[in-house]
Amino acid sequence: MLTITKTAQNVINLANESGGSVTFTIRQLQDDNTFLTIQDSTVLANGYQSDYTFASDGVYQVVEVSGPTTNVIVYAAVETAILGLIVTIHSEDCCCNSKTQMLRLYYYNAIMANFYLFMAMINTTYVDNWIYTAANTDELQNLYCLSDVITKITELVDAGNLITESCDDC
After folding, report:
1. Residue 167 counted as domain residue
2. CA 42, 1, 57: angle at the middle one, nearest 5?
3. pLDDT tens-digit map of 20-67
4. Cα–Cα distances in angstroms (integers) from residue 128 to residues 116, 118, 123, 124, 132, in the given order
5. Domain limits at 8?
6. pTM of the model
7. Residue where one domain finishes, among candidates 57, 74, 91
């Protein structure tokens, strides 16, 4: 059985301390609620470990051939983008009623409402544990919902980043 630990925002460490080799695959949840294999049949010998870096935010599964399936939720880019937007909003010397500032605040509020929903779903179901093992259909449905919220936040962040005007028009 693999031991999976988070080592960075989008990196996990897979360690094999099972006494024998472990074969696993890594899959990513797609928009159509199916899983796409992104790393196929990797063998990790006993006593060895390996880091895996996720390329994008989303819901992933580490599937052990003769063991459990572990779900991993990655939202590193979302966190970084939200922080960037907050810094932009707070660092501008902008009059409160400018069109640019109002648009940025609109996207900020929309993003934060979705992010609050995302974190509430994680806290309610998984006790803020971003790595867990799903055992039933209800938990899989929650994964689909979490993936949809990550997608919506990413779309809002992308739209908010398109605002390039300064607040000098006040």
Report:
1. no
2. 60
3. 999 999 999 998 888 999 999 999 999 999 999 999 999 999 999 988
4. 13, 11, 4, 8, 10
5. 2-74
6. 0.76
7. 74
